[in-house]
Amino acid sequence: MFFFCKTNQTKTKSGSLISKPKRSISRTDLITFMRQTIIHISDLHFHTYPQNFQDCGSKRILGMANLLFRRARQYPLQRAKMLVGQIQNMKWDHLVISGDLTQLSLEAEFALARETLGPLLKDRKRVTIIPGNHDRYVRQNKAKDYYKQHFGEFFGEEEIHVKKLNSDWVIVGWDSAHPNDLFTASGTVRRSTIQATENLLGNLPEKTRFIIVNHYPLTFPVGWKVDHSHELYNLVPVREWMMRYPNIRLYLHGHIHRNWQHRLLRESSPELLLLNSASSTSRIYSGQKSSFHQIDLVGDKVKVTPILLE
Ligand SMILES: [Fe+2]
Ligand SMILES: [Fe+2]
Description:
Layout: E1 2-4, E2 9-11, E3 17-19, E4 24-26, H1 27-34, E5 36-41, H2 58-74, H3 77-88, E6 94-98, H4 107-117, E7 127-130, H5 146-151, E8 161-164, E9 169-173, H6 191-203, E10 209-213, H7 235-243, E11 248-253, E12 260-264, E13 272-276, E14 292-298, E15 301-307
Parallel strand pairs: 5-6, 6-7, 9-10, 10-11, 11-13
Antiparallel strand pairs: 1-4, 2-3, 5-14, 8-9, 12-13, 14-15
The structure holds fe (ii) ion (2 copies).
One fe (ii) ion is lined by residues 100, 132-134, 215, 255.
């Protein structure tokens, strides 16, 4: 099938009008035009070491020990650079990073993350970045919210981040990360966040489909031992709320460092697809199948391609 544009007429030297050939847009062209490709990465965990005593708060000392013994080996900077290079060579419309850019939320870590990710962040409108618990690692005054200082422009100033991809799909980013006590890594989806999302859902055309981006998982693999001090405090009510909105088709998250794709079935409406892209920069563990995901949206259809960073 072809879709024809208006006929163009042009004048010859003698003054007579002739019709130019009709420019046609094939169905393939239209599908290419409507297709949106998202790259979803998560939990990059850029790290530096604290430079002064002030940086070494109590929780950071624990984090430092963890970093020294485990994470530094797990997250060589070279892998982050590899990831950036790989994504630069791919065709995509929008990049989503679902939190944990850093390890100890030090300013130097955010600066390193910003510099390394720079080639992917040239067009702010093509990027969504939300914070994870490691980006709000210790209690700090607002002036020291380094996530906001270095990456706030990719979320915005409102309660929720909203990015309209096309007439069919909208991305909604949540900020559920907050500091915790020494042994806790939990988050909370605020009531105001749910309210703002409900308002958005109610105000857009009924056919609009939504992609929620949040740091924390809503589902776990079979047999997974859920650690309640490591998850969303309000996981169950948030998941139940989401299942009531059939137009929410995708939930992109990180936090648990195992890539996965899960599906939650709704009784008489489309399923909810949940993608975990953590951790995209970590060294590959035995049996690992993917480091991040490519998501292709064409009309109502969602195609997910897992990608291994090797
Ligand atoms: Fe993480
Ligand atoms: Fe996390």
